[in-house]
Amino acid sequence: MTKLVSLKARNRLMHHNTMLHSSPYLSLPYELIGTDSGVDTYFGFCTYPGRELRHRIDLKVYPRDIYAFGLIAWTGNDVLNRRLRLVAESKGFRLDDTGLFPATHGSGSKRGAKGSASLKFDTEKEVFDFLDFPWLEPHERNL
Questions:
Q1: Where is the DNA polymerase beta thumb domain (predicted)?
Q2: With 0-12 CB in 10 A as exposed, 13-18 as middle and 19+ as buried, what is 99?
């Protein structure tokens, strides 16, 4: 990701570099910071040559062992993501872009906190199957 960000900046296509490391946002140009889950995240803006309009870009690099969860989270719209999270919660799990975790209810929250270890799945289809949710190809995920 560092090479991509540097290349875009050299070509004047990317501006306002902001990296995310927990919270709050930190301005750290061209530097990657890993998060606790191992996901590298870059938030920034890009422009097209000859245009003033800026576009927000989010770049995320997921480790192989949680890649399926990242694909699910970023290839569907918010409606699908909410449905999948609700199905997971009805089965006693918490779903996010880093895994499917057994829910723990000792936190006092209505939905429960996520447990510390995610179930392991290699593909998005395995996650859909586990949740008994009909398989949707990525291009079908805008509900």
A1: 71-142
A2: buried
